[in-house]
Design a protein that fits this description.
The chain is of the alpha/beta class and about 325 residues long. Helices cover about 40% and strands about 15% of the residues. It has two domains: about 5-185 and about 225-245, NAD(P)-binding Rossmann-like Domain (Rossmann fold); about 190-220 and about 250-290 and about 305-325, UDP-galactose 4-epimerase, domain 1, CATH 3.90.25. The structure holds NADPH dihydro-nicotinamide-adenine-dinucleotide phosphate and guanosine-5'-diphosphate (GDP).
Amino acid sequence: MSNSVRRALITGITGQDGAYLSRLLLEKGYEVFGLLARRGTDTTWRLRELGVAAEIRLIDGDLLDLSSLIRALEISRASEVYNLGAQSFVGTSWQQPLLTAQVNGQGAINVLEAVRLVNRDARFYQASTSEMFGLAQSPEQNEGTPFHPRSPYGVSKLMAHWATVNYRESHGLHASSGILFNHESPLRGLEFVTRKITHAACAIKNGRQAKLYLGNLDAKRDWGFAGDYVEAMWAMLQQPKPDDYVVATGVATSVREFCRLAFERVGLDYAQYVEIDPGLFRPAEVEFLLGDSTKARSRLSWKPKTSLPELIAMMVDADVRRQTK
Ligand code: NDP
Ligand code: GDP
């Protein structure tokens, strides 16, 4: 390995953002290493779908095992570490609050410790979330908005966020926290509402599914495209100083409107197919999120390139292609 080549280590490489970030870093000439948590099945389908699987070096490890993280940092000799690994689904966090806290909260601290122990000069990115704002204290949320998480997921991510700030302040690490609002893509997991909707719209169109059952249709989210958001992650680690940044589109849309647009893309009226399942409502809901990403736009020169209608078209068309194979 040459010393001039930049090396990055990504936890959560098999996830949606891991795949898009891998592709971005490879395009920029990085050697990309990924932490691979051992599962019963092959979890690399997203990396194969983006055509990057062969170029990535996977290292066995788990966020809960500090020794594996130390080993991954030693093997990769990474100068940039992106902590994207998480139990990332809010709904599941009520069923598995302790696992969520361990993987998302303690897991982030494990990565920070590994960086501190192996290479203090490595730059660190923490995948923070708008879910930390939760019961939002202002109509638009930015870096100064107080946090009020509404789920075990939000609570766990707040621990990781403050640990990132603390390692910056107490150990001088170049540790940044990206407070990203919801971002989606054709690679989004089927449990998230956007992909659940685009997948169902296609299945209903094909006659494979009769109805789509959803919970709260009035919740609003600031939805962007994951491919755009990983550019902000990278840009944060190129700054001379570490910091926290909100990354968002600045447009809030309801789940209902998302349904309308997705079904319209396949020529259907959502109202005829979507039914409410009270069991899908959450014990505590985040009704409204809208991000103010002025800081990222001015300091990182970042802005989203993909509108919500474009994102929905991309997701629906990908599901149509998959389902007609
Ligand atoms: P995904 O759920 O698609 O990916 C999560 C990744 O974490 C997977 O690669 C998963 O591996 C890995 N992982 C889970 N548990 C462990 C563990 N114990 N050890 C090692 N790896 C583990 O999430 P996204 O790509 O959508 O999100 C990336 C990050 O950004 C997450 O931290 C998420 O919470 C955060 N975030 C996401 C937002 C979004 O809208 N997408 C918004 C704001 C923040 P495996 O496939 O093997 O399970
Ligand atoms: P989140 O913002 O990280 O929780 O992302 P999700 O995609 O899981 O949920 C976004 C919003 O959609 C939340 O307010 C959910 O309550 C709402 N929602 C409504 N019906 C559903 C559903 O069937 N599944 C999911 N995942 N969310 C739903």
